[in-house]
Every structure is written in C-alpha cells, then in structure tokens.
Amino acid sequence: MSSNKQRPSILDKSLSRGKTEVSLTAYALLFSEMVQYSHNRVHSVNDLHNKLAELGERVGVRMVELLFVRERSYKRETKLLNVLLFVKGTLWKSLFGKEADKLDRATDDERIFYLMEREALVNRFISVPRDKSSINCAAFIAGIIQAVLNATGFPAKVTALWHKGTTFMIKFDDVVLSRDKQLEGR
C-alpha cells in the first residue's frame, strides 16, 4: 500500500498550534547563562544592561515577525495607544503568559509612558552580588519592547528601572507623537 498523501512540512504548520509554554526551569537556566555570558564580556553595570538589551532586541524583532507576519489574525497598529496596549497585552501574554501589570503615562512629558511589572520573570532567578545591586536583568525585556516598537514604526528608547518592581520607561521620538496627532485629526 502506498499513500500519495504527503505529510505537511513543519514549515506549513501554524505557529499558534503546538506547545506554547517553555519549562520555567529551562528558561531560568538559559537566561542565567545569557547573563553570565554577557557579564563576562563587559566592564560595567551599564555595559551589562546594554548587552542584555541588545540580546532582547534580537528576540523582539522575531516576536514582531511571529505575531504580525505569520499569525495573520493580528493587524499592525497605527495609533500610539493601540500599540502600547498590544505590548501590554498580546506581546506580554505571548512572552510571559499574562498581561503586564500596569501602563501609565508620565504627567510631565507626553512622550514618556511607563509599563510596570511587579516581579519581572527575568529578575526572579538571578542572584545579584551586593556590590552590583543596581543590576536589573529586565534590561533584556526592555530590549524586546524597544525592538517591537521600532519594528512596528514607533521609534522609542526603552529603559528598565527599579520602581514598584520593574518599570519600563518608554520614551517615544517626537515624530511618533506628531503622527499620532495627525491620525486623530482625520
């Protein structure tokens, strides 16, 4: 008996099917190795934050491809608030299995938004030496957020801060706000 039916290639299968969760232990091990690798190649805490953000940017670009290009159910956002809600909800759920805790806007600068996470997963498994207590491994997540925003046409600088857990300060370029105001005027 020969079958003329060919099995679908792995490339033809939907990415939304299949196992969507990674073992927390495996994630912790992989991430701690990334931090150690980065730590051994830098000379300061600021350099470590930059290196982790750079690694996060690589993930962020791929998340845009995954969520927008391959999963046709998502459309690219054109408004600032919608893309921020996308990051807080859809992106966060696909990365961490839940929405981010809070999204807030700065009162003194309309270009700045804050995305808050009480306990960032990346900081949970990292023990920081006392002399380097300012290390915030959430710089990796800041890199992911920055890459997603930049790749979707919302250029921004994202920084991870220690405030009420971890707060990601998102500072958009002026061009983003002027474009958003033009879209509201239509």
Description:
Helices cover 47% and strands 13% of the residues. It is α+β, with helices and mostly antiparallel strands. Strands 1-2-4-3 form a four-stranded antiparallel β-sheet. The chain is globular. It starts with 23 loop residues before the first helix and ends with a helix.
Chain-wise SSE layout:
Elements: H1 24-39, H2 45-70, H3 80-96, E1 102-105, E2 112-117, H4 121-124, H5 139-151, E3 156-162, E4 166-172, H6 174-184
Antiparallel strand pairs: 1-2, 2-4, 3-4
Helix pairs in contact: 2-5
H/E order of the elements?
A: HHHEEHHEEH
Largest sheet: 4 strands, antiparallel
Give the integer mean of the pLDDT values.
83
Q: Determine the strand fraction and express it as a percent band.
A: 5-15%
Give the uncertain stretches in residue-range form: none
Q: How far apart are the first and last residues' alpha carbons, in Å?
A: 64 Å
Put simply, the count of helices is 6
Computed CA radius of gyration, to the nearest angstrom = 19 Å
Give a brief description.
By secondary structure, the protein is an alpha+beta fold. 47% of the residues lie in helices and 13% in strands.
Task: Provide tags for this entry.
186 residues, alpha+beta, globular
